[in-house]
Specification:
Blueprint: H1 17-31, E1 39-41, H2 50-63, E2 65-69, H3 78-87, E3 105-107, E4 126-129, E5 143-150, E6 154-155, E7 158-161, H4 163-173, H5 175-181, E8 187-189, E9 192-194, E10 197-200, E11 203-205, E12 208-210, E13 216-218, E14 228-229, H6 233-246, E15 254-256, E16 262-266, E17 270-273, E18 276-277, E19 287-293, H7 302-308
Parallel strand pairs: 1-2
Antiparallel strand pairs: 2-16, 3-19, 4-17, 5-16, 5-19, 6-18, 7-15, 7-17, 8-11, 8-14, 9-10, 12-13
Helix pairs in contact: 4-5, 4-6, 5-6
Amino acid sequence: MTERARPYDNPFDLHDEPAYQRWRAGKLERLAGGDDFPIVAIADVNQLQEAEIAALLRQLQRCNMAIYDTGAEGFADKEFVRRLGRHFGLTRLDGNPYSDEDDISSITVKPRDQGALYIPYTDRPISWHTDGYYNAPEVQVRSFILHCARPAARGGENRLLDPELAYIHLRDENPDYISALMAEDAMSIPANEVNDFVSRPLQSGPVFSVQADGTLHMRFTARKRHVIWREDAMLARARDCLSALLDSDSRFIYRHRLDAGQGLIANNVLHSRSAFEDGTGTEEARLLYRARYHDRIKGTGMAEFTEAI
């Protein structure tokens, strides 16, 4: 095992290389021993078992995400999503104008006037991003649950990458990349204006930041339009390095197409989605439930990580 970190160590402080190396070794140690990504089976959606919660938590502690399978084809109860979140301390839902009244979004193809202005509600591919990258700093999305009620007839595969592994890749390449990505105005999202009404003001902030609990947070989008990057040569090189990683066949990038009854719970990991095709009828349309939270998943903080190493 690696040397135990001291409580005051900050592995994300570029001036504390020993703390970073201890954290890095502990992180990679958790991933050693195979490239598998076990899917956690849930026997009864109405009564989650302690062993199932523990298995999900182990995977979350390993790489900030876990996939479960309820075995319930066609199962579409949003209350299960809410209960699952509560098991992990997730209560502060992040609503948006297109989420349902309960602040859990029904992600399916919609007409333009009902949300298709935004790519998640179309069948087009979605580039790499973290959820809520356009949110204000005080309401950042720190975790989400994505539950599949009905998959697409074809396509709709997700690619997933733990932001902590992206951080390691970039810092190992050049620590100045991290410094550039931590600038307070590294990435800005323009104001969202519809018919001269500003529904969301311009939001600027870093790509990587350290939260009050000591954990790493990432806000990012690979989209080319409606994003403003700070004009800085080092930041441009950092973005190129990150893009190369996201376009690679790295063993740390996991690919999975959610089937009916399956879901993903994660600490807002980087993710993308391929294009898809629906079936011919409305009852065959791809439908996912998405719950986004302002909370980080309980049991995945720096205190638990430090204790483990």
